[in-house]
Amino acid sequence: MGYAIVQTLNALSFSALLLLTGLGLSVVLSLMNFVNLAHGGFYLLGSYVAVLWLGSGAPWWLAFPAAFLAAGLAGAVLERFPFRRFYARPHLMQVLLTYGLSVIMADLMRWGFGAQILTPELPAALQGVVFLFDMPFPLYRLFLIGAGVALGLLLWLLLDRTLWGAVLRAAVTDRGIVETLGIDTRHLFAAVLVLSAGLGGLSGALGAGMLAAYPGLDEEVLILALVTVVVGGLGSFGGTVAGALVVGFALTFSKVWFPEFANVVAFSAMAGFLLLRPNGLIAPPLRQI
Amino acid sequence: MDRLHRRKNLRTGNSAPPSAPHLAPGRRLVLGGIAATLAGLPPARPTLAQTTLAQPSLPQPALVQARPVRIGMITSLSGPFTALGESMRAGMQLLLAQSGHRLAGRPVEFLVEDDLARSEEGARKARKLIGQDRVDLLCGVISSGVALALRDVVTEARTPTFLLGSANDLARGAASPFIVRPTKTNWMLGTTAARWAHEKLSGARVLTVGSDYAAGREYIGDFAATYQQLGGRLGRQLWTPLGSADFGPLLTTIAAERPEAVYGFFAGSDAVRFLRQWKEYRLAGRVPLFGAGAFFDQEDVLPAVGDAALGALGTFHQSPTAPASAAFNQAYMATGKPLPGEFSTTGYVCGQVIRATLERADGDLADWAKACGALFSAPVETAFGTMPFDPRNGQAILDIHVNEVRRGEDGRMVNTVLHTYEKLRDPGPDA
């Protein structure tokens, strides 16, 4: 009983991490139709900022806004040049550009933060453990689940329930019409990219306790985020949530039942699933023009 | 090329090329090439065989010895082993700096190439160092996959190589007369861990867990084989893919199995995640944990896991508390580095063995069989301790320490030697 509950919580906490990393990627992909392979770089930057912040003795909970701001700032700089010029270009060009940038970011971070594996000094409040039917489960992971749910909800409210979100969705559908209404869509898109980069940094800060921070992590995270977004279905918020849950549960329970073939089982399941539903779990009606 | 150049000049009776002293080495090489071509000599660099033949006809051996010795290192400066590769390079550079950048009277040119931890890239860089840079000897390699790929390249090119991967096969089927191995094989660590477990845990049921790749399979497989031979009982054997993001599910499974002890092998970021989560899931202190090799590496893993590994035991040929390592520890830390781990020590030891080889061969590796014979004739004093070589496969015979992770005086975690199994010799071709 305890075993099943803890394994389910394990899956949920990993799904929360996938959701956090996937959200930033899916926001720019679905709302701006921009493929950002430098997203892993924002994640890793957030991780490094959080590790340094938590080691510095400043109030621990400020590490998360700090990581959000640092990555958001990096996103703002990159948005001005060169991302902005590539929004209207084909996906292949965007892939080339952002992949190149991700390599540059990785090298800069290795230069700045070193090649050692760094881990955050978790605050005492997150180091505890709860026992469920005699099976231990770390508090930090409960915190991850909570953060994933809270951030997901917040983002959903922002994009789906506010005027700003409505304008944004309108701008994606028909940028020209929105501009005739007197709204500067350039600022709008810049804001979305900063938000996405910031989310990447924030998820890096939250995930550092589980994944640590080291050169090369950016690529690993990017692949997980891409898988999440693709399985869930491009272009929908609910899809990313569903994708995170499916991938998180698949990867966790394949480790529980077939630890030796965990990746094979999990990824074949996802590949088979995509054959059945090529547009992902939740595919919105196609609105790309 | 330089040597050809000189030989031609000696033949034509010139004492020295008139313009040579003013030219940069690169241009001198080019000029030498042109001169050699014009003189009808083979313009390509001499193969090892040609050099060997030409050797006795050289009237002034002093000239040969003043020629710089070019050492090529292939290591991982990007990819998953970046930190290890940088440590290896730092260890080697420290030895070269201590030797005043001269080995056996010859100035040293040290070239480093990045293999990206990929075997085809490693082989390409080896061909480049041998063919284009004309190194006198090669050394390096973190990944055993790269080591096995290099084995064929250097054997074919007959380039003396000090190869540092640790796959068992490097001392067995893949041994080569051109390869010296101044480091451990995985078998040495796995089998000593089993002997220790048998002596101290008196037949406890041991669960094994490891990264599912070549090294993990060898560390766990050799442990399991020896442990069962000695009469120990094994519990479940768990494997997890290399580069696992989350060990939570695995650790929950381990907690539910309630094993009497856990033996494991992970490296790099996997080791860090496993050990941190080992503590988060409250297994630390409740279940005895032991492992082998880089699982508790002093430089790469222990600083990143806090006290999560406290009390864990590991078999390793490296320990910062081994007496032989003391002088190296001090010199390494004086360069602003932390307490050394496996790969910085290995890089340094590799340099010590190269130095010994060159010194015993009077700085001339042209007759490699003879140089090898001199190296194998007597042990070398290294930071791993006194190191004899097995002449059958060029494999070092090593002392293997059982390290316990203890809290040092300054609060840091230190691999502390509990016991030493002396003179472990890989079965080599007998296996």
Brief rundown of the structure:
The complex is a heterodimer of chains A (289) and B (431). Chain A has 289 residues and is an all-alpha fold.
How would you summarize the topology of this molecule?
The complex is a heterodimer of chains A (289) and B (431).
Chain A: H1 2-32, H2 39-56, H3 63-80, H4 91-113, E1 129-132, E2 135-138, H5 139-161, H6 163-173, H7 175-180, H8 185-211, H9 217-232, H10 237-257, H11 262-276
Antiparallel strand pairs in A: 1-2
Chain B: H1 2-12, H2 25-38, H3 48-54, H4 61-66, E1 69-75, H5 82-98, E2 102-103, E3 106-114, H6 119-131, E4 137-140, H7 144-157, E5 161-163, E6 179-180, H8 186-201, E7 205-211, H9 214-229, E8 233-240, H10 248-257, E9 261-265, H11 268-280, E10 289-292, E11 313-316, H12 326-334, H13 342-360, H14 368-377, E12 380-382, E13 385-387, E14 389-390, E15 395-396, E16 398-407, E17 413-424
Parallel strand pairs in B: 1-3, 1-4, 4-5, 5-6, 7-8, 7-9, 9-10, 10-11
Antiparallel strand pairs in B: 2-3, 11-16, 12-13, 14-15, 16-17
Helix pairs in contact in B: 1-2, 5-13, 6-7, 8-9, 13-14
Family (chain B): Belongs to the leucine-binding protein family.
Pfam family, one (chain B): Peripla_BP_6
Protein name (chain B): ABC transporter substrate-binding protein
Describe, in plain words, how this protein is organized in 3D:
The complex is a heterodimer of chains A (289) and B (431). The radius of gyration of chain A is 19 Å and the shape is globular. The model of chain A has no long low-confidence stretch (mean pLDDT 89). In chain A, helix 2 packs antiparallel against helix 3 (63-80) and helix 9 (217-232) crosses helix 10. Chain A has helices at 2-32, 39-56, 63-80, 91-113, 139-161, 163-173, 175-180, 185-211, 217-232, 237-257, 262-276, and strands at 129-132, 135-138. Chain A has one domain (2-215). Chain A contains eleven helices and two strands, in the order ααααββααααααα. In chain A, a hairpin with a 2-residue loop joins strand 1 (129-132) and strand 2 (135-138). The termini of chain A are far apart. With 431 residues, chain B is α/β, with parallel strands linked by helices. Chain B has three domains: 2-44; 69-184 and 324-396, Rossmann fold (3-Layer(aba) Sandwich), CATH 3.40.50; 187-316 and 400-430, Rossmann fold (3-Layer(aba) Sandwich). Chain B is built from 14 helices and 17 strands. The model of chain B is unreliable at 1-60 (pLDDT under 50). The A-B interface holds A 3, 6-7, 10-11, 13-14, 17, 110, 114-119, 121, 127, 129, 135-138, 140-141, 209-212, 214-217, 220, 224, 251-253, 255-256, 259-260, 262-263 and B 78-80, 82-83, 86, 212, 238-241, 243-246, 248-250, 252-253, 255-256, 268-269, 272-273, 276-277, 280-282, 300-301, 303-306. Chain B: This is ABC transporter substrate-binding protein. Chain B: Residues 1-10 have a biased composition (Basic residues). Chain B: Pfam families: Peripla_BP_6 (PF13458).
